Amino acid sequence: TAFGDRGILVVGGASSGTPVSPTLTHVSEWLDFWGTSCTSTDIAVCDIGEVPIARIDHIAIELGEAFAASCPHRGSALVGLGADDQGHALDDLYLFDPDGLSSGGAFTRLTGLGVSPRIGATAFASADCRVAIVGGHSDSSGETVAAIDVLLFDAAGVALETSSTTLAQPNSSAALIATGNSLGEVVVAGGVDSSGNARQSAVALRFENGSLRVCPLSDAACNGNPAAMICPRAGHAAAVIDRTENATRALVIGGDLAGGCGVDKNAEVFATAVEPPYNRFTSLAAQPVTARTVGHTTSSTVDGEVLIVGGLDASGTPRNEVEVLQATPALSFSTRPALSTPRAFHRVVRIGGALVLVGGFNGTSAVGGLELYIPGF
User: Fold this and answer.
1) Which is it for the CA torsion 127, 111, 149, 238, positive or negative?
2) Which phi-psi region, left, alpha or beta, contains residue 116 (left: φ > 0; alpha: ψ -120 to 50)?
3) Given pLDDT bands bounded at 50, 70 and 90, which one contains residue 103?
4) What's the rounded Cα separation, in Å, for the pair 149 and 246?
5) pLDDT value of position 152
6) What is the structure's pLDDT at 140?
7) Residues 200-210: pLDDT tens digits?
8) CB-based contact 110:94 (threshold 8 Å)
9) CB atoms < 10 A from the CB of 86, how many?
C-alpha cells in the first residue's frame, strides 16, 4: 500500500513456500523513500514490527485520496482480515499511521467492531468517510460470502454500520474498478462464485445519503449498472486507462477464463459514460503479447499507460515479461524491458511518477528484491 510519495507499507504475506503451501509471516515493513519516517537515508527498508497473527489474502487500503480532507484518519491505512496459517478466516482490523513510525506506535487495533471474518475480500473507501469491505470467502474450503461490511470513520471513532446490503450472489476475488464519476461508483467485476466457478457478472456500488447501494443488472432504477463482462474471469486484474470529465476507461486482463474464452480474449475494456449505454464492457481487438492467467499486476502510470507485469502463464509458470497498454492513437500493447526475475503474486505500487514492484513468487520461492519502473526511461 503506497502513501503518496512518502513510502510503501508491506504487511504479512508468504515469506517462503509455494502459493499452494505457503509459510506465512507476521512481519511488517516500511519502504521509506525520503528519510522522513524511520530513517535518515533517502531510500531504506525499515522493520516496523509485527501484526499479531501471520496472514495472507488480507486487505490493506490507504485512506487518502478517496477520503475527504475532513475525514478522521485520512492518510492512514486499514489493514487486516485474511487467512491464518491454518486457513481460518480472520476478523481483526488495524489502523496504520505512518506518522507514528518514529515513536513505534504505527499500528492500532480496532476493537469491538464485529466485522465478518473473510479471506480474499475487496475493499474501497468513499469521500463520506466510509470503507466498504466486499465479499470474500469464509474458510479455506472456499465458501464464498455475499456480505458487505461498512465502516464509518468519524470523530467518535470507527464503527461498523448496521446494514442489510449484500451482493446479489456470493463472490470472492473480484476486481474493483473506480469509475471516477460524480456518483463515486465502484464496479465489482467477475470473481469466484460459491461453486468455485469464474463469474461474468458485474455490479456497481455507490453510497447514497450515507447508505450503500448495490446496482445489479436486474435493477432498472440503477441507470449506471454495468453489463456483464465479455468473459467470466477470476484472479484477473484491472486498472484505469484514461479518465475525462464525462468518461473513464479501464483495462481488465487475465484470470482463470471460462465460458469458451481463450487467449484471444485475454483482455477487455470497461468504459463509463454519462449517457446510455452508461457502464459497459467491450471486446479489445489488440491483445497482450503474453497471455496471463493469475498473479499478474496492472498499474496506471502518470503518462497515461497501463503497465502489465509478470504473472502466471497457462502452464502455471511465472513470467518476466512487461508490457504497456497505450491509449493513443488507438489501444495497443507493446513490450518493455523484462523483469530481472520472473514473478507472480507480487504487488506494484506508485510512488510519485515511478512504479515499485515488491515481492512475489518466482516458481520455487518467495522473492525479496524490489524493481523500479520509471515511464519514459
Assistant:
1) positive
2) beta
3) low
4) 30
5) 94
6) 66
7) 888 888 888 88
8) yes
9) 7
Nearest to 356 by CA among 366, 364, 343, 289: 343
Q: How many CB atoms lie within 10 A of CB 240?
A: 19
Largest CA distance in the chain: 57
Instruction: List b or e across 294-318, with b for residues whose CB sees 16 or more CB atoms inside 10 angstroms.
Output: bbbbbbbbeebbbbbbbbbbeeeeb
Cβ-proximal residues to 322 (8 Å cutoff; 6+ apart), any chain: 307, 308, 309, 310, 335, 336, 337, 338, 339, 373
The mean of the pLDDT values for the chain is 84
The answer to whether the CB of 113 falls within 8 A of the CB of 93 is yes
The x, y and z cell numbers of residue 361, run together, are 513468487
Q: What is the pLDDT of residues 315-342, one digit of tens each?
A: 889 999 999 998 888 899 999 999 999 9
Q: What sign has the CA pseudo-torsion 215, 220, 224, 230? A: positive
- Closest Cα to residue 325, out of 345, 347, 309? 309
Does the pTM exceed 0.70? yes
**Measured on CA atoms in the order 262, 309, 327, 252, is the torsion positive or negative?**
positive
Tell me the DSSP string of 168-221: SS--BS-EEEE--STT--EEEE--B-TTSPBB--EEEEEEETTEEEEE-TT-TT
C-alpha to C-alpha distance for 26 and 84, rounded to whole angstroms = 10
> Smallest Cα–Cα separation from 331: which of 296, 305, 302?
305
